[in-house]
Amino acid sequence: MLGVIIFGFGSAVSSRLSLPKNSVLNSTLQMLFAGFFWIILSVFTGEVNSSVFANIQLISWLSLFYLVIFGGVAMLAYIYLIKYEPLSRVSTYAFVNPIGATIIGVLIGEHLRPNFYIAAPMILAAIIIILRARKAESKGNRVVGTIS
């Protein structure tokens, strides 16, 4: 939860901060700092020690490699979008990501739990409300009850 809160806060204030103009450098520094922070925290809390790395399977290393490559590309896209799109539109990734991850999980053999059938329509409704409110706002219409 702390990671989500920090990421959301950083996204909200990033357009107001004086950051390096190079998006690649900016996102690289963010990811390196976050990685070092979480490694230090996990060592400090005892979650990681030298014996942990000896037990990591090849599939886990390959998964990490996949996340580094595609996560880096996704982060660059996210940074680009924050620069050129309204935050309310860019933030919909947080709604779409769980659906996409669920679809990939189903494709590799995971089973859906009943709470998915409750959450998925709620997530899709939230995306529609946010995008419609933003569209109405850009046309000059006042949308009651929305937060921008």
Tell me what you see in this structure.
The radius of gyration is 19 Å and the shape is globular. The protein has seven helices and no strands. By secondary structure, the protein is an all-alpha fold. Helix content is 76%, strand content 0%.
Rg (CA only): 19 Å
User: Any low-confidence stretches, pLDDT <50, length ≥5?
Assistant: 143-148
SSE series: HHHHHHH
Fraction in helix: over 70%
The biggest sheet, with number of strands, parallel, antiparallel or mixed sense and barrel status, is: none
Report the sheet-strand fraction.
under 5%
Mean pLDDT: 78
Broad structural category: mainly alpha
Outline, from the CA principal axes? globular
Q: Termini distance?
A: 23 Å
Count of helical regions = 7
Query: How many strand elements?
Result: 0
Write a concise keyword list for the protein shown above.
single chain; 148 residues; mainly alpha; 7 helices; disordered C terminus
Outline the fold blueprint.
Blueprint: H1 2-14, H2 23-45, H3 50-54, H4 58-84, H5 87-90, H6 93-107, H7 114-138
Offer a concise description of the structure.
The protein is mainly α and 148 residues long. The protein is 76% helix and 0% strand.
